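The step that takes the researchers longest sounds almost clerical: writing a folded protein down as plain text. Below is the pair of lines this work produces for a single protein:

——
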Amino acid sequence: MSTTLPAPAPAAAHAPAARARTYLVKTLGCQMNVHDSEHMAGLLEEAGYVPAPAADAAVEDVDVLVINTCAVRENAADRLYGNLGRLAGTKRSRPGGMQIAVGGCLAQKDRTGIVERAPWVDVVFGTHNIDVLPSLLERARHNAQAEVEIAESLQVFPSTLPTRRESVYAGWVSISVGCNNTCTFCIVPHLRGKERDRRPGDVLAEVEALVAQGAIEVTLLGQNVNSYGVGFGDRHAFAKLLRSVGAVPGLERVRFTSPHPAAFTDDVIEAMAATPTVMPQLHMPLQSGSDRVLRAMRRSYRAERFLAILDRVRAAVPDAAITTDVIVGFPGETEEDFAETLRVVEASRFASAFTFQYSPRPGTPAADLPDQLPKAVVQERYERLQALQERISGEENAAQVGRRVDVLVAQGEGRKDADTARLSGRAADNRLVHLALPPGLDASQAPRPGDLVTVEITRSAPHHLVADSALTPGGTFAVRRTRAGDAWQARVEGREEHAAAGASSCGTGAPAPAGPVVLGLPGLGAPTR
């Protein structure tokens, strides 16, 4: 579907031709959206745009601002239109003008409604046609019209598009797009389409290219990764892929998200246990502990099956940290149903959980169900669930005190790092660790993002661990400088060169320094599976 709508004359057309136009991509939603934003950034750089300098990006002083949207929950839509309302004034006041583009799941859903509600938007494009972004921007500038183009099916597999990676030491790799499940609360299959799997050789080639560029960690992405292989008739394909990716020389950490409990098989558990590079971490969406609610959700598993999967994972991978998604207040949920959810959460001992208040999404079967619950009831149950999980997370993290862990140092993980003089990163089980440096450590020997540091956990909180072992004489602290750290340092030192060079067209090009901006939604995904 392609539609041209009136829009304010784009002042960006008067921007000086002598300089490259700057851009910023902002992301609402899950890791799939973050990875899509990397493709959007790569496409823009291939078309000659450059990332906005950090100071300009912070105040949205850019020629092109792209918002990649989520449609899973109502507050994501509220967040989009709140951003657009604020940007109307920014666009009017910017001397050089700017273009605003909206893409992603909410764009696929609302279509022309976005421009009708926010007529200062220049471009709207959907989940199936990311590749048209640069041409739509150019067309909107040339015609002084808003351009809306929504494809009904996937036009180009996203992984074949140019990519500006957010990180050089860790990367996302899509193994499939779309979803074949029919969960009554979820709008994702409608917006992303039926599952389409990449061939294993293509996935491996992308992983190998990432490793060649310096990455030592990859996360395999799919709406339902353990149904991978449905497109080419191999029900064991995901376990085989885990083993193959885990054997790529130079790759040290493999993660994946998210599986569906109904399709989670023992061969995947065996692959996790037998492949040292597959990390002891699992994100397994529960959604509800009530069998009656699970049936109403069309989740084709029951609570005891879910718990049995966790038991088998922990038997094979004893140190596995398991996380989840839970929805509170699904239509018709009784106090007895909610009590079952609390029981299963208590028994599951999740390291953390993304908890959501049910949000009716127009176009989903659940939105038309009777017995939609009052907000006050949902809020009270939500707070009880949060309190329970906060206690469990605190207890599980407290059990980590005294353990030695290897932390992959990250960039931008710790909000208070500048105040505490700590670095932050992820342990093998994906727990967030803030680590202290030894007094007097020479700056040239300090760990870089992408390096691995062995430390001892000295303190815990429900959402993070602290490793101050380096502050004790003789305490545990060892740095392993890695190829990934070298790649990060090379990118920083070549900042101007990278920014001017643009992205590779092979789909795995090294990123320019600044990555897409994520607008504060959970990174492990919303209840979409």
Summary: DSSP finds 17 helices and 23 strands in the chain. Confidence is low (pLDDT under 50) at residues 2-17, 495-515, 517-529. The longest strand covers residues 321-328. Residues 71 and 110 are 9 Å apart (CA to CA).
